[in-house]
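Exercise 7. Predict the joint structure of the components listed below.
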Amino acid sequence: MTHPGDRATFDRLVSASLPAALRFAVRLTGRLDTAEDVVQEAMLAASRSWKSFRGQSQFQTWLLRIVVNTHRNLVARRGPPETLKHDLVDRRQMPPSESAAAAELAEQVASCVAALPLRQREVLVLSAYEGMDAAQIAEVLEVTIENVYSTLNVARSKLRQQLEPYFAEK
Amino acid sequence: MNWQEPTGDPLDDLLQKASWPEARLEQLERLERGWKRTVRRRKIVPIASAAAVVLIPAIGVVGLLAIRDNGRPAEPHTTQQHTVEQRIAEQPQPTSAVVAHSPEPDRPQQVAVVPSQPAESPAQIAVEPTAYELALARIHRRQIAAIQGATKHATKQAPSPTVEPDPIAGAIQRLINEPELQSQSIAQGLALKIPRAEAKLQRLLQTAASNPLETPELRAAKRHAALRLLGTLATRDSAPLLLAALRDKESPVEVVEAVARLCSIEQLSARARTEVIAERQSVWLAALLERGSPQAVDEFLNLVVHPATSAASLAAVSGVKHAPTDALFSVMHSPSIKMRIAAARVLGTLNDPAVSKRLIELALNSSTRSQALVGLMSSSDPVAKQFLAYARQDLSLAAAVRSISHRYSLAQSVN
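Solution:
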């Protein structure tokens, strides 16, 4: 358990968590500019509500919850970002160099994750990229553990289906 | 299920391969600066408030004392008992709270306020001030002047706490009061006046809908005006907001024009094909042609060729300020007859005498005659009409004019 104790420690903790918060927001939003907006608003929210952090959860869990809520508010305000849908193409039929193919694959995976519905994306990013377990995710998202499991299941099935052409390469 | 442990699922390997946009250093620095500003502001505000609580009544008391003592005869001084500070205070000086330095330079000393006395003659000061005392007096006077300046400034500002009106709110109010005003000049003035005007307008639009103190009508009017300003200033950053605004059929034309400016050629073409609102379709079509690149011109001519969008496309040509005439003339030599004819019709619809002259040159050449005549017949420009009148009488051209006129039903009377 990490508890900032006083305001100065809290400020230092937030400041130190900025890169992690930005990285998480990038995975959540799929866009750098939006991620920056989200983190900026989340920091302000954190600054306003630091007293609500009682040390019952880890500082990171508490901060990520603020980032998640800020992102949800942003989506509610702005609506989902309009992105061009591009179908997956079986790149095996193309003869690009291996590095280009790898870059393409990396982009496709990120693009599929970014296209998941909001809640599924949140669960998936927290589990796959933040390394959180079901209990931690449930705490961040304020849902039950069962809900985390089922949402993650749906998200992974969807991704498995979309990324099917790439499994055969392995 | 514990997904912290390796599961052997190929999906996990794929997920780890995903590449995300890398956060740039300046973004982190910007966030860091923003956070430091937030922390600093939080520290400064209570200090400033506390200082204000102490200083403002003190200044008030000083003022009252000065008024009360004004005109009271000076107490006789026992000069030899005066300290340096007292003697300095006796120098002719305006009434005010003062902060004097103690003789020890590192120990500033808050001294009691000395109401100004009527200036005494130099003879009353028994001991002449030393150079050090004179220097101290000069510093003292400068400090008094500075405090007086600050007090005056504060007194002047006190009645109007809102010093500068918000330029964005002002611009929005102007557009509400005078909707016929051109938003472009106002928005450009705004952009010059305040940095990041676009971002501020975005924030305003995102929060305006939730102001409970305003009537729905006022909120709608403000949103409309803000969208007009944002449409004029918009860059790609505003695209999500503009696209969301576009869902409303009553969105101002500035929003449509901004989206037209920001869209890719393919997106413009798709919007022009599927748009159901005629005014917007006209904007998409005009924007597409104005792009002027060979790809944009091809897309536009495809829409001219298509029966569903042909009339709207030709009608939109009149809204084009800078038509890509050279690109259109190059299509006149295209292997596709449909495209050649479409380009000719667009060129004719421009009703430009310079274009008519170029079309006449092509009409006199047998290899490009057909499409050039189509262009001239589509034009209502006097130069084109005059040439067609001559061509109908000319033995070598009359047959071609009749044939084209019949085939494409493009007699000038129709146009």
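Discussion. The first helix of chain B runs from residue 10 to 17.
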